[in-house]
Please model this.
Amino acid sequence: MAKRSSLSIRIVEGKNLPAKDITGSSDPYCIVKVDNEPIIRTATVWKTLCPFWGEEYQVHLPPTFHAVAFYVMDEDALSRDDVIGKVCLTRDTLAVHPKGFSGWAHLTEVDPDEEVQGEIHLQLEVVPGPRGCRLRCSVLEARDLAPKDRNGASDPFVRVRYSGRTQETSIVKKSCYPRWNEMFEFELEEGATEALCVEAWDWDLVSRNDFLGKVVFNVQKLCAARKEEGWFRLQPDDQSKKRRGEGNLGSLQLEVRLRDETVLPSGCYQPLVQLLCREVKLGAQGPGQLIALIEETTSTECRQDVATNLLKLFLGQGLARDFLDLLFQLELGRTSEANTLFRSNSLASKSMESFLKVAGMRYLHGVLGPIIDRVFEEKKYVELDPSKVEVKDVGCSGLHRPQTEAEVLEQSAQTLRAHLAALLSALCRSVRACPAVVRATFRQLFRRVRERFPSAQHENVPFIAVTSFLCLRFFSPAIMAPKLFHLRERHADARTSRTLLLLAKAVQNVGNMDTPASRAKEAWMEPLQPTVRQGVALLKDFITKLVDIEEKEELDLQRALSLQAPPVKEGPLFIHRTKGKGPLMSSFKKLHFSLTTEALSFAKTPNSKCVNELNQWLSALRKVSISNPGLLGSYHPGVFRGDKWSCCHQKDKSDLGCDKTRSRVTLQEWNDPLDHDLEAQLIYQHLLGVEPALREKHRELSAGTEAGSVLTGPGGAPEDPLGQLLQVLQDLQEAHRASPASSQPSEPSRLLELQT
Model:
């Protein structure tokens, strides 16, 4: 049994940001921090005061987190990036919005006295003295303090204040992990109401000292407890909010949703999982049609989440293909017009989208990666719409002449034809590279559609059914927004975005089998028609080979893949090597790393293209280490240089780490290991929300049974799967009520600490 918390974050856009560059514009990007730990960095949007990001993230984090903060920064090439402003959402703020916080939030000024981080280790006790009780405060150590100096560290000391008296520790130079082990005593007056304040400061020789945070204690409660020891989170200065002036720093549009789940032991979910799996195995001929009822009672807003959770659940049970096949049959059963097939946001469409991202992301990178890289590297001006053509000068120095509109259109058509031909060629060569489970799923889809629309006039419908997912819902979105599919680390500029959009339109026309309706929408795409027509033939040949996979071949391919641990993360990293003292004696070497659930390996050359940002590597390492019994609880963030650790200045090389390992904040990726219990819990929560609708449906079905329509199972025995589902939901509800986690607070409350 465990408490799980997750944040769904969508950073939409900003508006009315202040200009930070001399050009009167800014180059904004966002950094997201959970309790001062940076976890996300968006792409930079160049030269704009109203940036659009549209980036989505799923973050798993401990239930004890306090706040998530969004910092809008201005990127500078030659100097330190400027801070524009921030939006901070506390856990309490998110908890009062069960459907999530959504809307515009004003950016506030970043006050140094509010930007605190870290914890301080204190021992507090009330001891008897010759003239009465005394208050003893032992300042032991601190960790993860904010670096305030240019050398990336601080010179911290602690100031303890009580009853008008102030005492200070010694100064620890150049450390964010200081150890003091100093003790202070104060006379404790009878009935005193003043609080004990422990403040951390960064000492500066020339300028004023920088505030690092504080902890405030209720002395009356301390007298009752007599003794208290532990790590206390440093709090900001609450007076800084009163001093801060209001300014127009612009706004940030966010969508943030907090989900807290209590995950029960696996055995509690087995009845629910077994019931759903039995329904999938029985298929469309099953008596209860539970999957159809779930789709019927699921609203459009949460259909994507439900589809993803169901898909991951059945992937863990080895029934993903059977689940999707059942959805295909349900959709085909209620579709009369071939041209509307899989065009709506049905459970089948949403589940198939999630399936391709989970099972086919590496395949997509292999096919599209080189094409996208070429578009970004060339940065050519491409335009086919005559109403949007920008005529520019061409030629060598002194011989400039205006380029005609016809020349621009012809060069653009040539560029797009080359990109489209290269993409189609790569796709046609990728049959064997496509995952076996994806091929088998497309085979089922192809067969089901051909059985439903067997006439000659619907000859292309099975092909269009496959391309509606592969091209229209997978490849085309990745071409238009490569950053969101981890194909690039940055968003495309305006020129490259237009090229990608036109290329995606061409791919859509090929995926639609060059129908007259698709040609009529944008007549100016006509110059690409010869390549599109060739592409249709190539694509049909590719799909014919793609779905030509037999059961034995599928099993052999899956068995071969199962022997290889799938990569959790791969990409280039720079290794720092020090050959001696001085800045000229160090070097960096670029190696390509691959992290699986079994090992971390590297090579001199890359095997595939992937994002390599630091926080994603840290997140991947945390995921594969989460079940490691040898995982340390602490570590040294510095290096042992000379005779001491650079972080905490301890001289024992084998000394325990001065900072705690942070293994519980991770970014969710499509290739994450499956968490079967969590998916089952999320499905249970959804079904619990639609339980009234399910009960109403059960009453209708029961009335029909009394009238003579009896539901029977494979053996002819009467069955009531919906009634069984409702009973399972009731049993799970009772299990949650009886679980200790439902009655315990997520974090032990300290009576001594005043929340600021």
